[in-house]
Write a structure and sequence with these properties.
Length: 1236
């Protein structure tokens, strides 16, 4: 060694410091071992005798115990360790970055033969010059230390001796326990790479010598000129001073030094004498793996957002765990058919002249009646045509099991019936969809997704519908966006082929094969196909027959869409099974004559009517005391959307009007259904005179927290819910929780639908919880066709109890309905998953918000009650958005009054703020085929900015309550550049944000001279008197008045004179400015500054709504303690009118000055504030919830604000700025009055 024979304590302090720095560089990896030896020898050269003909850094030491015996386990630290510790005492920085305790802990862990997984850089694929093949399950420990230097010089001779010794032993693994477990991590020191044993190893014989081998290996290193650049991405542990038996590495001689070998990711031993930083740099240059740029800017919500503390008063479920509810057993009737096609064949043969369907025209008159005989014969022709006439016998276009689309308009149910049953007889799967009208139809692209997922290549339609489809200039059917290419087939009778006498359709017994596919739109707008099997279709018809007590020959009036949901299940399927006469009332007829279905019930003495709440409401509104209307024949009035909690009001109102026309209260039967589970529950027709089921009056606050609480406080925040009857026959129902694993709810808890985590089963609710209804029944959907992943989360739910144990092995189906089970096993539904809005961990129903908005006098503002409610994600939480269509004759003032009242109503009733409330022109929102609002498309337009609202009110301050945490001040000593770069790389927010410095501007001297607004106006009136400051436009965009600098200055002087003469105002008094938006307001503001008064701008009361707006004016006047009111003559009359006296005390108004007639003389002098800290004006604002806030603004703040706006917005005297804000407070007032 270079320092052998040198007393380090006698060296000069400068040399000791340099040696300490050199040791630190070696330990930190900033220098290689070879460089370390050279620099150290150079430093010590003047203090040691020179060794002739020997290079210190290649000096060899003979191997063997006598050369450098391995210290015993009881021995203290090695001399080299003590030596380096003495060196480290001279360096102050060494103690900061070096830890001997950590080094000794690693050594002790290795002595116990336990491996530590250490986080190191990613490994590289490099091989040692000594190793030509991978290693097999090796764990080569490194007995060297970064601080050892003596043993690192004894390389060449030690390696050669160790090679000879290791070839004498056939034992590949000495002490097998050193292997440990392999890992794929970059920080692992053990990897498995299998390879057959080498031939020379299998021939080695002789006893092992672990002690001698350990002694040799403890002081050997691979020669630096014999190895490739080393890799330190994997490390092992050692115990300094202990002897360890080390197994040899396969493919390497026993004599090679295991102490100097380490594993890379490929299990290749390499030299360990290399810097970690250098190795990391090599890995980066070799295989750079940078994360995507977006990952550098991911905010951690938990670190940024201020998490609200849980409210201890939040209601929690307290009931017991719910018990699954069973429906009554499904009865067995002897004459029930084995399949639905068999029922049609039976009625077509035995009851051929019995009416099956009556269709109405647009005027409400019957146009044709389809008998069961005609339905059977036409369906038979279509089935034969589909299977035999669309292709050749060797290559048919359709085969049993193929999917076909049914495209028929809502006013042609007869053609749809024939097509649907023709597909069933041909054993092809019908997929009913809506008729596309244009390429830009709402949801048209999602319908294309449905057809693609179902593999539809052929569409059935009528001749009239085909002619109405949009076409290209060449006459071909337009290729709709997102749709697969379809072959269109017309199913009119004249195009069908009569089957041969020997051909009969195959009608098997109902099985699990898919019968038809019904489309369903999710909350996000995705359209999926729910597959219903043949046995499910038949069982559902049987359950409906038993629950509704259908009989042969009855008459049913169907107002619903016959292509899906209740309209299909009752009006097309169950009616054929029971030979019911269905009268279909198209949607177009309902728009022209809302009473048409009531008239059909009266004329045909119908026993059952199938309607929605909207049909009840329209019929009630169109009723005009018709004496010839009699509804006594009805035994069931099925309300298909009875699951809507607000349907109870329509049912009650309809009953009140038509009870005098024979309608019995017990015939109203609301029901609940979903596309996945079909009919969930339905109220059975009651007995005449029996008491009606009780209703639940629930607290909306409790519902928002997911629990059932009877409303006892505020009547405005109560929700009255009617039951939807009992569970369907043969079904089993549960209520499961929405968030986390699906568990059964308590009896007062509301469970919601959630995606089931793979590691958590669904849990049942308690008896006071609201939850999602899940159903087990043979009469339900089986899957989302072509979407197995989504199917598993919906159709294969197995609820578990509170302990996590499954309640059974039977899978349940999610219905998407939120509700609970009440007394008598009655089912109550309070909403749907699709309309669920979760804001700040509270749940709100979109239907509830729509009902609240409609209750705020929408007749003057909202067009036909068309309102859409949805949520958007803003700052890690959902925010509520309401979009409504505005009436064409509604004024802007009326619209904003309505929007303000809606904000207050929702805040008061639901305790939630709105993010945005927008009004769009009438008939501009996307529509569904039956005229409703397409909510998902509306949301997409909102996010894309393509709604084009005519009035909009954004209120983020009322709903964004999880604002960022206060920014933490960074520790001293870290520069701003380091903070910024570190935060960006870590994906965190930048430490702070600040605007530009105002600095020096060109007219700095003028700013000092005219630092007050009044002085600035006087200066501009002198230097640029004709420069136009303001142009006031009317509603048509025509200029009605202008004001130049000189005109504004002179009018302000006249206002100041009026204040001094008429008002007797003293300096510093507050003066209320009560003007409509215009130049009078601005001139009065500067007149107050000229007179030394403090102006307070107030929005004038609305002449047609003084009761609501005048108290606000009075409140601001009282709070500001105004000594005078400046206003126009018209507003002065309103303030003193009788209508105003009904709201406020008009005798206590302060002095009111009319500025329409001002004095012509100038004031004797203009007021100049003594200091910039004097008040300039008062800024009062009223929030949407009615809270009044006042802010005092000084002249200094006004000057700084105007300069800031000028610099940021680059406002020069030649710029023209359009202002569409109110001039009474905030930024609107600043831009109107100050920034000119």
């Amino acid at each position: 060694m270079a320092d052998r024979g040198v007393d380090l304590s006698g060296l000069p302090k400068e040399v000791r410091d340099q040696l300490a720095e050199l040791d630190l560089e070696l330990s930190e990896g900033d220098i290689t071992q070879k460089g370390y030896e050279k620099k150290k020898a150079k430093l010590l050269a003047p203090y040691i005798p020179q060794i002739q003909n020997v290079d210190p850094h290649i000096q060899l030491t003979p191997p063997g115990p006598s050369a450098d015996p391995t210290p015993s386990p009881d021995a203290g630290p090695s001399a080299s360790s003590r030596h380096h510790r003495s060196h480290r005492s001279g360096g102050a920085r060494d103690d900061r970055y070096r830890s001997d305790i950590h080094t000794e802990a690693v050594q002790a862990a290795l002595a116990k033969h336990k491996e530590e997984k250490m986080a190191l850089p990613m490994p590289t694929k490099r091989r040692s010059a000594f190793v030509q093949s991978p290693v097999d399950n090796c764990t080569p420990p490194d007995t060297s230390s970064a601080s050892e230097d003596e043993g690192s010089l004894r390389r060449q001779a030690a390696v050669s001796a160790a090679l000879v010794q290791s070839l004498q032993s056939p034992d590949y693994w000495i002490n097998r326990s050193l292997q440990g477990s392999s890992t794929s991590s970059s920080a692992s020191s053990t990897l498995s790479h299998g390879e057959p044993k080498s031939q020379n190893q299998s021939q080695n014989t002789g006893p092992p010598a672990p002690s001698a081998l350990a002694d040799v290996l403890a002081h050997t290193r691979l020669a630096e000129n014999s190895s490739v650049p080393p890799d330190v991405t994997s490390t092992t542990q050692q115990d300094r001073g202990s002897r360890v038996d080390i197994p040899p590495v396969r493919g390497m001689s026993r004599g090679q030094s295991r102490a100097s070998m380490m594993d890379t990711a490929d299990g290749v031993p390499v030299n360990s004498r290399v810097s970690t930083k250098i190795q990391q740099l090599l890995n980066t240059l070799k295989r750079p793996k940078r994360p995507p740029l977006s990952e550098f800017f991911l905010d951690d919500a938990e670190e940024i957002v201020e998490v609200p503390r849980p409210d201890p008063s939040t209601p929690r479920p307290e009931g017991r765990q719910i018990i699954p509810v069973k429906g009554e057993p499904l009865g067995v009737v002897s004459n029930w058919p084995p399949a639905l096609q068999a029922a049609l064949a039976r009625w077509g043969a035995t009851q051929a002249k019995s009416p099956a369907l009556t269709t109405l025209d647009n005027t409400g008159k019957p146009i044709y009646t389809l008998t069961y005989g005609k339905l059977w014969s036409r369906s038979l022709k279509l089935a034969y045509t589909l299977l035999n006439k669309l292709g050749t016998k060797s290559d048919p276009v359709l085969k049993p099991g193929d999917r076909v689309a049914l495209v028929y308009p809502n006013n042609d149910p007869g053609m749809f019936w024939v097509a649907f049953y023709g597909c069933l007889l041909a054993e092809v799967i019908p997929v009913p969809i809506e008729v596309p009208l244009t390429r830009k139809d709402a949801g048209s692209q999602q319908i294309g997704f449905l057809l693609g997922s179902c593999g539809v290549g052929l569409a059935l339609t009528s001749e009239v519908c085909l002619k109405g489809l949009p076409k290209t200039p060449n006459g071909e059917i337009l290729q709709f966006k997102g749709w697969p290419r379809l072959k269109w087939v017309v199913t009119d009778t004249k195009y069908l082929t009569k089957p041969s006498k020997d051909w009969q359709p195959h009608i098997p017994t109902a099985n699990t094969d898919t019968a038809y596919i019904e489309y369903k739109a999710s909350k996000e707008g995705t359209v999926m196909g729910v597959a219903v099997s043949k046995i499910s279709m038949l069982t559902h018809c049987q359950a409906l027959t038993q629950a509704c007590n259908y009989c042969e020959g009855e008459t049913l009036v169907n107002v619903l869409d016959f292509k899906k949901d209740m309209g299909l299940w009752h009006g097309v399927l169950t009616s054929v099974m029971n030979r019911i006469h269905t009268i279909s009332v198209p949607y177009a007829v309902m728009k022209a004559c809302p009473l048409s279905w009531v008239q059909r019930v009266h004329i045909h003495k119908a026993r059952v009517a199938l309607v929605k709440c909207r049909d009840l409401h329209w019929a009630m509104m169109a009723h005009r005391e018709q004496r010839d209307t009699n509804l006594a024949s009805l035994r069931m009035l099925i309300v298909a959307d009875g699951a809507n909690p607000w349907s109870v009001s329509s049912c009650d109102a309809f009953l009140n009007v038509f009870q005098s026309h024979g309608l019995k209260p017990e015939v109203i039967c609301p029901c609940a259904s979903s596309p996945e589970a079909l009919t969930v529950a339905i109220r059975r027709p009651g007995v005449r005179g029996a008491p009606l089921p009780a209703r639940a009056i629930l607290s909306m606050t409790g519902l928002s927290h997911g629990v059932i609480r009877v409303n006892t406080e505020d009547k405005n925040s109560a929700l009255t819910v009617q039951d939807v009857g009992h569970v369907m026959p043969g079904a089993l129902m549960c209520i499961v929780k929405p968030d986390g694993p699906p568990m059964l709810c308590k009896t007062d808890e509301i469970a919601l639908m959630c995606i089931v985590k793979p590691d958590g089963p669904p849990m049942l609710c308690k008896t006071d919880e609201i939850g999602e209804i899940v159903l087990n029944s043979r009469a339900g959907g089986t899957m989302y066709y072509g979407l197995p992943g989504v199917t598993k989360n919906t159709f294969e739910v197995i609820p578990v109890n509170s302990s996590g144990a499954p309640i059974g092995e039977i899978p349940f189906t999610r219905t998407g309905l939120l509700g609970f089970v009440g007394p008598g096993s009655l089912v109550f539904v309070v909403g749907k998953i699709e309309g669920l809005l979760t804001v700040s961990s509270r749940r709100h129903n979109a239907d509830d918000l729509v009902a609240t908005a409609l209750a705020v006098e929408p007749v003057k503002t909202v067009y036909r009650g068309r309102i859409a409610v949805f949520s958007v994600t803003v700052f890690y939480d959902e925010r509520i958005v309401i979009v409504a269509e505005q009436r064409p004759d509604a004024s802007e003032e009326d619209s904003f009054q309505w929007m303000s009242r809606v904000l207050q109503a929702i805040d008061s009733i639901h305790q939630v703020g709105l993010y945005c409330l927008a009004l769009v022109p009438a008939n501009t929102l996307p529509k569904t085929p039956l005229g409703g609002i397409h909510v998902s498309e509306t949301k997409q337009h909102f996010l894309e900015g393509s709604l084009h609202p005519c009035n909009i009110l954004l209120c983020p301050h009322t709903c964004v309550t999880n604002m960022p945490k206060p920014r933490q001040k960074q520790p001293v000593g870290v520069g701003p550049a380091s903070i910024m770069v570190g935060n960006l790389v870590a994906g965190k927010r930048i430490a702070q944000a600040a605007g530009r410095e105002l600095g020096l501007i060109e007219d700095q001297d003028l700013v000092r001279k005219h630092q007050f607004l009044s002085e600035a106006l006087q200066w501009r009136a002198q230097t640029d008197p004709d420069h136009v400051l303001y142009v006031l436009l009317n509603t048509k965009g025509v200029p009605v008045s202008t004001a130049s600098c000189l005109q504004l200055h002179k009018r302000a002087e006249k206002v100041a004179t009026a204040l001094m003469e008429r008002g007797g105002i003293n300096t510093g008094d507050n003066v209320v400015l009560l003007y409509p938006p215009g130049i009078d307001l601005i001139s009065s503001f500067y007149g107050c500054l000229y007179a030394g008064c403090v102006p307070v701008t107030v929005r004038p009361p609305h002449p047609q709504n003084l009761a609501a707006t005048l108290p606000t004016v009075r409140m601001i006047i009282d709070v500001s303690k105004a000594a005078c009111i400046l206003t126009t003559q018209l507003l002065m009359k309103i303030l003193r009118s009788k209508e105003a006296a009904a709201s406020v005390n008009i005798k206590t108004w302060p002095t009111i000055i009319d500025t329409d007639d001002l004095p012509r003389k100038r004031p004797p002098q203009l007021y100049k504030p003594p200091t910039p800290e004097m008040l300039a004006y008062l800024d009062f604002s009223v929030s949407t919830t009615g809270m009044l806030t006042g802010v005092k603004i000084s002249h200094a703040a006004v000057s700084a604000l105007c300069r800031s706006i000028k610099l940021q917005c680059e406002l020069y005297s030649s710029r023209q700025v359009a202002i569409c804000l109110d001039p009474y407070c905030g930024l609107g007032f600043v831009l109107w009055c100050l920034s000119r």
